[in-house]
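Task: complex structure prediction.
Instruction: return structure tokens for all chains below.
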Amino acid sequence: MADKMALAKAINESLRRALESDPKVLIMGEDVGKLGGVFRVTDGLQKDFGESRVIDTPLAESGIVGTAIGLALRGYRPVVEIQFDGFVFPAYDQIVTQLAKMHARSLGKVKLPVVVRIPYGGGIGAVEHHSESPEALFAHVAGLKIVSPSNASDAYWMMQQAIQSDDPVIFFEPKRRYWDKGEVNTEAIPGPLHKAQVVREGTDLTLAAYGPMVKLCQEVADAAAEEGRNLEVLDLRSVSPLDFDSIQASVEKTRRLVVVHEAPVFFGSGAEIAARITERCFYHLEAPVLRVGGYHAPYPPARLEEEYLPNLDRVLDAVDRSLAY
Amino acid sequence: MTVESTAARTPRRSAGSKAGTTGTKRTRTTAKKDAGTEPQLVQLLTPEGKRVKNAEYDKYVAGITPEELRGLYRDMVLTRRFDAEATSLQRQGELGLWASLLGQEAAQIGSGRATREDDYVFPTYREHGVAWCRGVDPANLLGMFRGVNNGGWDPNSNNFQLYTIVIGSQTLHATGYAMGVAKDGADSAVIAYFGDGASSQGDVAESFTFSAVYNAPVVFFCQNNQWAISEPTEKQSRVPIYQRAQGFGFPGVRVDGNDVLGVLAVTRWALERARSGEGPTLVEAFTYRMGAHTTSDDPTRYRGDEERQAWEAKDPILRLRRYLEASNHADDGFFAELETESEALGKRVREAVRAMPDPDHFAIFENAYADGHALVDEERAQFAAYQASFADEGGN
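Output:
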């Protein structure tokens, strides 16, 4: 059955389905219960599944992730919410030293099927710590899987798959796209969680992005088309693992690659992509892999974020530079 | 001992029942308050504005003059007026967000006025009344809420740190600062503000530990305003928050946070303890967040109006007014003049905010480092060239 719904609602429906189909699934976080989350992603779930399954936790992120680990050890599948990207760091210790490593530490005996949901990214005019993109800080850590949907359908299905995953998944939700609507077929058979998707076919250059930047790249491709340029847009969907095969296939066709993310360029996921694709496609590339992203500066106050974030012109500028080689 | 795979293990007991799905006895997810621990509340002014004696704390406000009492009243009225103006400015689109302190004026003015110039204050993001006491220009508080900066004042010019948004972090900074004060042999004190929600954070527990171990001259001032966004205080603590101090080895006291006189007295006591080398103190100011968490919040989703109405009767400004009037410490002229001053403040703040310019684009690259960084220089130059490319198009 296909319904048009907002991305936030798609996650809500996906969580609802998980709660219905698996009694071990729990929702935990600050304000996720009675309030339904500050973005209403968990709206109505506590009312329907009760306080023992949709849990308003104390205001303590390390506690949220640390106890989710314990619950997972006991056989539960916690889906925890970190209210905003910039608030994850009290939990960073638990995520890096425990959540990511316990499986290996136990020689594979222990599995930690924990999903950590993090609304991330900027563009909503927020105060400090509410607009960051810390995905690379997690991607650097082995043991974690990192995904970020760009649209409602992926949000629904990727959440289903993340909850089913026996590995911990950091689920980055593009908060500025929460209210974007899209078709969600709840009876579809989804593709693999960590596989990229070509969302627009093209021949002249590949734009690779994930989460909030996919929509921007589609707009860039539209604008470029008016100038007679045929760009391919690749929605990476997963940051760890990265689907290098799909990127390679696209680049072997287009011979040019621009990677776009909100996170700072320096040591960002684009750097890893550029290095790997240079290794894999050296003789196919007509231009160096270019990156568009945030600067090596703290995320600026709201009135400057439009200058900091990749936008149509900045990506087009990179496209021009790539095509000029 | 072999660690079994949780996925493959056959449960000896039904773990599902633990999840509360089959209605077992243990379905309660939040501890109820323990009976018999109803806390003692320090109160010098009742909600009706009646002065009550307190053997322990009276001496800390014994010499207070009518003029000083009128000063506290003025502080609270002006703070509330400023706060209302900021809420309006958010509604008008001039601010992106506002965190109102409505209802917490006495907790903030009482404690703020207890501090000395050389004391150092570590606020959350809601301490507008304390900022007022420290002499920070109210308009400067609004820059970060307008989105032109992430903190618009020099923390060292008023010994008032920048607002801290990440919950509880500042309690450790305050403790470290206090450790420094002690090392320097100074008799200044440090006060760290935080809320009932923050009391759950690891940083806050660690700040209690450090301050106790190093006997740091710090006052932990918890405004328990009953709500951490949608979660009531019983989601954070099974005991009254002030009682936590005991386990760390220093005293805690609960004061009526809507009683400015009581807060002033208790905070003076706590600051004196710090100055005289007796170490940390926890003050829990029992108050109420009359408004939403921020302008983005809708409290009707999680709390009823009856509770708010009950707290309205305990309004901090109203009770001091009753006391001032009953004791003939203020006349109509005073209240009328204050009304005029209040409107003038609102107007000044409004105009200051509207005149606040958007920052220069290059501000993005400023202050990322104290000593500079080659990559920042490179990116700034690229940004300049990129911006200039638009100017060229315009020129041609």
